[in-house]
Amino acid sequence: MEVTRRGFLKLTGVSLGTGLIGSLGFDLSPAYARVRELKIAKAKAVKSICPYCSVSCGVLIYSLTDGAMNVKPRVIHVEGDPDDPVNRGTLCPKGATLRDFINSPQRLTKPLYRAPGSTEWKEITWEEAIERIARRIKDTRDRTFIERDAEGRVVNRCESIFWLTGCTIENEPGYLMVKLGRLLGLVALETQARV
Ligand code: SF4
Fold it and tell me: What residue stretches are annotated with the 4Fe-4S Mo/W bis-MGD-type domain (predicted)?
């Protein structure tokens, strides 16, 4: 990299300035804390989980809204949750970009349905999606449930449904998901948290 005389003077000036402030005994941490405080002042924080990988780090999502009807809160900041035992306030570089992921106009926020044979995706409501999923599970289980194996032993299982839970499912809901899967007789159960 070629360094010009002007660039060299700028760089050394900044380094000397920072070093000088430090060597004069100034503690800049209150100033940094104040900047952070101003950034999230009046913002509302909600706890969530990073959706990117199976580590499932806890995050705090800060959003701003003036409370007016029909105004969508705007996410202004995301940081690691210091109370979360998994990551204790830290985030990896990928998790640190969550604010842009949340605000991306390309992020899907509604279920999409593509009918058999169709090339088009159609937006449907959450109620419709949940209803369709429940119907499919029931019909598939009823159609393929196995009460006895080839030797006549009682097995009561359903081998035609694969049950996968996501990494944002924590221990307790994960436990309930497995219970529900076993109640249905499913044998193929997995969670992304183990991947
Ligand atoms: S912050 Fe990083 S390590 Fe944590 S869940 Fe997200 S992607 Fe995984």
Answer: 43-106
